Amino acid sequence: MSAQRGSGLLLLLVVLVAGAALYLAARDPGAARRAERAAAASAALAAARETLLARALVDRNRPGSLPCAAPDAGGSGSFHGNDCDADTGRFPFRTLETRPLRDGGGALLWYGLDPALRDRATQEPINPQARQGALSLDGVGHYAAVVVAPGEARPGQSRARGTRADYLDGINAAGTDFADCSADGRCNDIVRGISVDALFADVQRRVVAEVARALVELWASSDRDPRRRYLPYAAALGARECARGRALGAIATRDVDGDCGRAVLAAADLPRWLRANDWLDLVV
Predict the structure, then answer these.
(1) Torsion angle, alpha carbons of 118, 121, 123, 127, to 10
(2) What is the rounded distance in angstroms from the CA atom of residue 85 to the CA atom of residue 36?
(3) CA–CA separation, 103 and 100 (whole Å)
(4) Residues 258-279: pLDDT tens digits?
(5) Which of 63, 54, 72 is nearest to 108 (CA)?
(6) Fewer CB within 10 Å: C terminus or N terminus of the chain?
């Protein structure tokens, strides 16, 4: 459903910008060309953003994690030990198995991520409570990632060198603070962000679905007679021990005293990634 909404919004955006370009073409050919480039950049940025969100949702090891940026135009994100070779670099289209995404002038998109969300076991736990988002966009924090259409080279920039400062302008040229400055005469970067809330929205639904599946299987196996099947009582918030009579609380994974008939969720009942990233602490 989220993918369908994203595709629909992307199509609507392209149609609206294309319509504006046609209108401007009749009045100002230069403005029409600028509008066409802006439309191409917006479409590429929307595609990049949707690709990153989809990858975070379906990842098999650490849902909610992000790939490293590509250190060069090859489009492959890579690690040096446990760290990304680049936290801000080219969009990793080869890692994500998509086509190269370019702005209206043909430049590859750029991408930055909060390194705490990189797809590495050393970063676990990765969940919305543990990772607050180290990037900011237009003065607002709590961002997990940004994608940038760099536009045409500005005075003093040499695309042959290929450095970040030769593509990105203003505060986007260094650090973890970004700004969409496409309306600024001294800057032409178009920037779109992914907040931590947006990154984990669908991942949380996946977590709930996995826990619900495990509970249904536990209920079905609690007794051969459907009339005598049951679910265990809950645990106190922040605990794992089943508490007799508790109907609301955390998911119980221990029943030392036998208060729940020892029918509680075991480690084998849940995916490793869910346990390793402390998702049960967020489920009630």
Answers:
(1) 90
(2) 34
(3) 10
(4) 877 667 888 888 999 999 999 9
(5) 72
(6) N
- Is 70 exceeded by the pLDDT of residue 108? yes
CA angle 97, 101, 107 (to 5 degrees): 140
3-state secondary structure 142-191: EEEEEEEECCCCCCCCCCCCCCHHHCCCHHHHCCCEECCCCCCCCCCCEE
pLDDT at position 21 over 70: no
Sign of the alpha-carbon torsion through 143, 147, 153, 159: positive
What is the spatial distance between Cα 114 and Cα 185, in angstroms, rounded to a whole number?
29
Question: Letter for the amino acid at 148?
Answer: V
Maximum distance among all Cα pairs of the chain, rounded to whole angstroms:
80
Which residue type occupies 268? Answer: A
Dihedral over Cα of 119, 64, 273, 123: its sign: positive
Q: Are strands 83-84 and 79-80 parallel, antiparallel or unpaired?
A: antiparallel
Global pTM reads 0.84
For the ranges 24-33, 108-117, 159-168, 190-199, the lowest mean pLDDT is seen at 24-33
Decide if 138 contacts 156 (C-beta within 8 A): no
Tokens of 84: 């990304």
User: Distance (Å, rounded) from C-alpha 6 to C-alpha 240?
Assistant: 38
Beta bridge partners of 42: none
Percent of the chain with pLDDT over 70: 88
Q: What is the pLDDT of residue 38?
A: 84
